[in-house]
Write a structure and sequence with these properties.
Elements lengths: L1 H12 L5 H21 L6 H12 L3 H22 L46 H38 L58 E2 L2 E2 L31 E5 L13 H4 L10 H8 L1 H15 L2 H9 L4 E7 L15 H15 L3 E8 L24 H19 L8 E5 L11 H17 L5 E5 L18 E6 L6 H4 L3 H20 L8 E5 L54 H4 L7 H18 L4 E4 L12 H7 L30
Parallel strand pairs: 3-4, 3-10, 4-5, 5-6, 6-7, 7-8, 8-9
Antiparallel strand pairs: 1-2
């Protein structure tokens, strides 16, 4: 009310009553003048009068306001077309200002246009100086009235806007934004002309209108490729000044690997499906359909259904909020597994081809935003390097083995040729800390010499293409001591070891106290020997481990088979299996007396006893301590649908994993307690 009173006082002082009506009256008068001018357009002196009037009178304030939106749209499109995009070379390397600041802003501001007076009389003759002065006075008065109204509106609107802003959350990112149906809003496509996508690109990985999710992608079209891989979706600027937490250096400062431990997390089951992580993909099929891995799943679904199903999973399973939570838990590195179909597919492949590529790039940018360094992990090679479901296809090994073994090994080199050229770009120099050649090649079933030769060739290739970060290769399950003296001619290499107590029946039968003691003693000794080049390879990292003490999680050992713990692991009829892989005798510490059960391990963490929670936490901390005698570790994995002992996210919520990865309430030097005396059963 005070604002309205002030406005009325201004109007009275100017000799104007009822300001709102006065504005309408003046606008109506101006409309009559414009009509009169149009009627006289055929007169002989039309052009001169119009030009002089435009110069002397200038645009009307109200007209300027109405035309603002259209003018800004034109300026925006023009500026966007001229704006530099991500390209290879000098233009690519120009920016480091902001990861999420690509879209150009309109440069013409309607409120900054200079207002000019003057014009002609209604009969077409030139107005005299007195009339001109009166007209200028009238226009100044109109401007003041309009400004008064604007001020009044702002007085009301600004507090409301602030209140709404405070209630809308802290993040300004559109990551994960969804519509009323739960689908990605893709609001960044608004204003993009679909005809701007060339016909040759429509429906390909370059066409954002064919993407299920465009949030946090740059959707301005570009067909620039680096290493034969598109930069489409990336912004041209990035910020490497971020850090994961105060204990570690920012991305643009060196990390002292081998001295400062890596404390990382895997994001498994995302770009490569794993039945134990996302069992919902496999539960709905009958066993007779044989859907046991990503290969058989996509083959059964068919091309169209597979694409929509898999891309929705890519979009929703791992979001920016996960990176927020990963950082909050204290992690400083993230390992991102992906399959070869992220890059290319071959004749007969049913995989969803190349869709995962943009999601991989988006995840890297999210990691950058939160200062988390990245370990690139090629998890599945053409032909399968181990025959396990997490390679994409369960069954026979077709990589460096079988009819197409050499072909598939060469295909994998071609994939690395592309990947290494792409990730050698300047924008990835600080964020990509580890470049993984291949996850878990099963060297116990492959020719060792052939694998070593391939590893040397692959490492040499990617380093020649400009990869300067550490190159990671898998231990192949040969035993750490057997790596002493191998691959010493290739610089900057890191041995990757995965440690579990549940896939080896000798370790599985250890009781809880013995498992903790083994983690403290046995794995610490292994780490020390492996780090010493006189007894092992040298630089060693432990890129997979978990707190699970049984192999009871559904589908952990493949779809449709049981567990070693209960003695129900029958591999005879499963692809790639056989009698030698079966375990038909219960192998829990009690030797089935009392009976070995999976109910306790598979229960919700809320149902765990206090003693079980204590053991799970201390077993995890013991492993962290041991693996930090090497270069550090990556926990497997960040999240699952239901297997809590394989989900750091769930374990964190349940209090059975450290709230911050460096917070340790247990030390190996203090010794493992007798958990049985605390009431923890050994059979569940």
């Amino acid at each position: 009310m005070e604002g309205l009173a002030a406005l009325n006082a201004i109007n009275e002082k100017l000799g104007v009553n009822r300001g709102h009506n006065r504005v309408r009256e003046e606008v109506d008068n101006e409309e009559l003048l414009r009509r009169e001018e149009r009627r006289r357009r055929k007169e002989e002196k039309r052009r001169r009068r119009i030009e002089e009037e435009a110069y002397e009178r200038g645009p009307d304030v109200y007209d300027e306001y109405l035309s603002k939106e259209r003018r800004e749209e034109i300026d925006y499109r023009s500026t966007r077309e001229k704006k530099g995009r991500v390209v290879s070379g000098q233009k690519l390397e120009r920016g480091r200002d902001s990861v999420y600041d690509e879209k150009s802003q309109a440069t013409s501001k309607w409120w900054q246009l200079k207002m000019r007076g003057g014009g002609t009389s209604s009969d077409g003759s030139y107005i005299n100086s007195e009339e001109l002065a009166q007209r200028k006075k009238k226009r100044r008065r109109n401007i003041l009235i309009l400004l008064g109204l604007i001020v009044l509106i702002l007085v009301i609107a600004i507090p409301v806007g602030i209140a709404v802003s405070k209630n809308s959350g802290k993040s300004s990112s559109n990551s994960g934004a969804t519509d009323s149906n739960g689908k990605p809003s893709n609001s960044n496509l608004d204003g993009i002309d679909q005809s701007s996508i060339p016909a040759s690109a429509k429906g390909t990985w370059l066409d954002p209108f064919s993407w299920y999710d465009t949030n946090d992608f740059n959707v301005t079209f570009t067909d620039v490729m680096v290493g034969g891989l598109p930069i489409m979706g990336l912004n041209s600027t990035w910020d490497d000044s971020t850090r994961a937490n105060s204990n570690v250096p920012p991305l643009n400062e060196a990390w002292k690997y081998g001295t400062m431990p890596v404390r990382g997390i895997n994001v498994g089951g995302w770009l490569v499906l794993e039945p134990v992580i996302t069992p919902s993909f496999f539960n709905s099929f009958k066993s007779s359909q044989g859907v046991i891995d990503e290969y058989t799943l996509t083959s059964t679904l068919g091309t169209g259904s597979a694409k929509s199903t898999i891309e929705q999973h890519y979009s929703s399973f791992l979001t920016e909020q996960d990176f927020v939570n990963i950082q909050a838990a204290g992690f400083d590195h993230v390992r991102i597994p992906f399959g070869y179909w992220t890059i290319v597919t071959y004749q007969g492949d049913p995989y969803v081809s190349q869709v995962a590529w943009r999601y991989l790039l988006r995840a890297i940018e999210w990691a950058r935003k939160y200062g988390i360094r990245v370990n690139l992990d090629l998890h599945g090679a053409p032909g399968s390097q181990n025959g396990w479901n997490h390679s994409g296809r369960q069954g026979d090994i077709g990589w460096l083995n079988g009819t197409d073994g050499a072909l598939n090994a060469n295909r994998t080199l071609q994939i690395h040729d592309q990947l290494s050229k792409f990730f050698a770009q300047d924008r990835y120099k600080n964020i990509i800390a580890f470049y993984g050649l291949l996850n878990e090649p099963r060297m116990t079933s492959l020719d060792t010499t052939s694998v070593l030769q391939w590893t040397t060739e692959a490492a040499t290739l990617v380093q020649k293409n400009g990869i300067n970060c550490t190159i990671v290769f898998g231990d192949g399950f040969m035993g750490l001591d057997n790596w002493q003296g191998k691959l010493q001619s290739v610089p900057n290499m890191l041995l990757d070891v995965h440690q579990y107590v549940i896939f080896n029946t000798q370790q599985l039968t250890l009781n809880h106290q013995a498992k903790t003691t083994f983690a403290c003693g046995g794995w610490t000794a292994q780490a020390k020997r492996s780090m010493d080049t006189t007894t092992g390879f040298g630089p060693t990292i432990f890129a997979e481990w978990s707190q699970a003490d049984t192999d009871c999680a559904p589908y952990l050992n493949n779809v449709g088979v049981g567990s070693r713990w209960q003695g129900t692991l029958n591999m005879v009829d499963t692809p790639g299996g056989g009698q030698n892989g079966s375990v038909l005798t219960p192998t829990c510490p009690t030797a089935n007396n009392p009976r070995c059960m999976c109910d306790g391990a598979n229960a919700s963490p809320s149902a765990y006893s206090a003693a079980y929670k204590q053991w799970l936490l201390q077993f995890a901390v013991a492993q962290m301590e041991s693996f930090e005698y090497g270069w550090g570790w990556f926990y497997w994995t960040w999240k699952t649908e239901s297997a809590a002992q394989w989900s750091y996210k769930d374990g964190l919520a349940a209090g059975i994993l450290p709230g911050k990865v460096w917070e340790r309430d247990f030390k190996c030097a203090s010794g493992a307690p007798d958990y049985a005396s605390l009431g923890l059963p050994e059979y569940y």
